[in-house]
Design goal:
By secondary structure, the chain is α/β, with parallel strands linked by helices. Helix content is 28%, strand content 21%. It has five helices and eight strands. Helix 3 (70-87) packs across helix 4. The N and C termini lie close together (11 Å).
Length: 148
C-alpha cells in the first residue's frame, strides 16, 4: 500500500481558486489499494477560497488583480512537502497546469489561457526533494511506478 499526496481538488474538495473542484474518479479509485493524502498548497499558504487566480511571472506568483502572492505559494509548497515527508509519501498526484501543482505545463503568466513549459511552485519543491510527481492525466504512469 503506497502513500500518495493528492491535490485536494482532485479528491472533490471545493478548494480551487473559483471555489469548485475537479474530482477525478479514476484517481479516487486508487484509494481501494493506497492511502491518498489530500493537500491544497494554496489554501495551506493562507490564500482564501474563492480567490483571484494566480500565475507565475518570472520568479514570482502574481494574482490576476496584480498582487504578489509568492510568499503564500512558497509557504503552501513547504507545508505540503512537510506533510509528504512526515507521511512517508511514495509519490504525488497534483493538478495539471496549476501555478502551484502543475507539472511540465503551466499557464504563461498573462491570464490569457496560454500555456508554456514549466512546473508549479509545489512541483518544483517536490522534485528537488526527490518526490515523484504525476498529474491526474498520468494515472497509468503512476500505476506503473507503483508496480501495478
Amino acid at each position: 500500500m503506497a502513500k500518495i499526496i493528492v491535490s485536494a481538488c482532485l479528491m472533490g474538495c471545493d478548494c480551487r481558486y473559483k471555489g469548485d473542484n475537479c474530482k477525478n474518479n479514476e484517481l479516487l479509485a486508487l484509494s481501494k489499494k493506497h492511502t491518498l493524502i489530500p493537500v491544497c498548497p494554496e489554501q495551506m499558504g493562507g490564500l482564501p477560497t474563492p480567490r483571484d487566480p494566480g500565475e507565475i511571472q518570472g520568479e514570482k506568483v502574481i494574482s490576476s488583480a496584480g498582487k504578489d502572492i509568492t510568499y503564500e505559494y512558497n509557504k503552501g509548497a513547504k507545508t505540503a512537502l512537510y506533510i509528504a515527508k512526515t507521511a512517508g509519501a511514495d509519490a504525488a498526484v497534483l493538478k495539471a497546469n496549476s501555478p502551484s501543482c502543475g507539472k511540465g505545463v503551466i499557464y504563461d503568466g498573462t491570464f490569457t489561457g496560454n500555456k508554456i513549459a514549466g512546473d508549479g511552485v509545489t512541483v518544483k519543491l517536490f522534485k528537488a526533494e526527490g518526490i515523484k510527481v504525476f498529474t491526474e492525466n498520468e494515472i497509468s504512469e503512476l500505476s506503473e511506478f507503483l508496480g501495478e
